[in-house]
Prior knowledge:
By secondary structure, the chain is an alpha/beta fold. Helix content is 39%, strand content 30%. The chain has an 8-stranded parallel β-sheet with strand order 1-4-7-10-13-16-19-22, with no helix packed on it. Strands 2-5-8-11-14-17-20-23 form an 8-stranded parallel β-sheet, with no helix packed on it.
Amino acid sequence: MGFFKDFKExxxxxxxxxxxxxxxxxxxxxxxxxxxxxxxxxxxxxxLEEDIxxxxxxxxxxxxxxxxxxxxxxxxxxxPAPEEALAEDTATAEDIVEAVPDVIEEETSDADEISDETAxxxxxxxxxxxxxxxxxxxxxxxxxxxxxxxGKLVVSGEITGNTSSADxxxxxxxxxxxxxxxxxxxxxxxxxxxxxxxxxxxxxxxxIKGDIDVKGPVIVDTTAIIMGNIKSKSVQINNGAVIxxxxxxxxxxxxxxxxxxx
Length: 262
């Protein structure tokens, strides 16, 4: 800042001297101003030229120059040929494409996770509409609609609609609709089901009006009343149970049709 301040003062003094000299020699004020401006530009140009000459003529350390050149040559050698660069780009694109299914699988697995929460529908609550939950549901009230959850569904109330769950347990429930579960279905005593039942295994002590399709074993307890067909791997019927329909162990390893060649 001190340099520019001194330069400004010297320039102003020079302009004033030139103006006084021009006026004393008979020049007009405008002519004197033009002359001062010309000199000012020349002084500025000369100063810039001097600065440039100092920068250009500055001494350069040979060691630093050699190190810079060697680094530049190393960078040039590390640049891949066009074919190699294309191959690298292609490999990167393939890696990205292969990684996409993994990301989708991770997102899907996160979405399929079962929550530990249990939603409770109290006895005095009536719901009109479908219900979905990522956890379990304990239903004591009334629902007019489909009920689905990823956890266990325990019903002691009334449902008019289909149900879907991992495990199912009915205790003195009244359900009008189909029941589908991925695990075990237990129909307790006093429960009345009007609909089909699909499960992996089943224990029935209540009343069912509908077909039963179970991939595993079925136990029909003494208090059970079934009006429908039973398809299972095995069936156990306790004394006192009432079944109106036919039983088929079509999922058994031993097939009667194969045994009798028919």
